[in-house]
Amino acid sequence: MVNKQNLYTAMxxxxxxxxxxxxxxxxxxxxxxxxxxxxxxxxxxQVNTPPVSPIDTNDDDETPPHRPTLSETEMVKVLQNWExxxxxxxxxxxxxxxxxxxxxxxxKTGLSYFYEQGVIPAELLEYDKTNAYLCEKQPRGQENQSxxxxxxxxxxxxxxxxxxxxLVINALTGQIWxxxxxxxxxAETEKALEAFTSYLDLGDGSSYITxxxxxxxxxxxxxxxxxxxxxxxxxxxGEDGLxxxxxxxxxxxxx
Length: 255
Known about the structure:
Elements: H1 2-42, E1 44-47, H2 72-84, E2 89-90, H3 100-116, E3 129-136, E4 153-160, E5 163-170, E6 176-183, H4 189-199, E7 207-210, E8 214-219, E9 224-234, E10 242-251
Antiparallel strand pairs: 1-3, 2-3, 3-4, 4-5, 5-6, 6-10, 7-8, 8-9, 9-10
């Protein structure tokens, strides 16, 4: 009799475990399907992510986390597409492109790098919401044709109270080609530009201009520009009542 009771108890425990695991698997599957459906329909999804942790660095190793896979000439061609074509077409990643999780990770790594370089404060590594969407811009007359996968880009936005970071990431290289930050304690443009060009491994460039609110380097005989621009606005953010805005980006035009 005792053996039967032990057997029934063991069977009950095993059955409870199977039900618990089955419920977890079913819930996870439904969530994944919901996320896939949303991404397929809109190309974007909002997820909750933990705060970004600074990357481990030492004084002797300041290698940017990403290495470029495009020549400057190829980068110019992509930027010409981005700048000339109006309108975005959301789509799912194709072979070789970053998926959403990889794009968010690339964004986090970039944020950590800019923090380590003194461009943004630690407060800008902590966010409440993350939004991500993948788009491409197709040349006029080629709307129904497949484009070069290098032309697609992820837009990742990390947002929190009185702070925001928006990153435009090349979907194939995983590099940040544009970063816009808002909040207190953001670096001046000269320092930001040095960090941005180092991150992209662009070097010193053929010319350099800075006037405090804008810093700019040119490459490829004036066909490619790396630009950092900043301004401040009166706000309740920060002890001095000022909120900083910084935008770093690549362009084919001096802006």
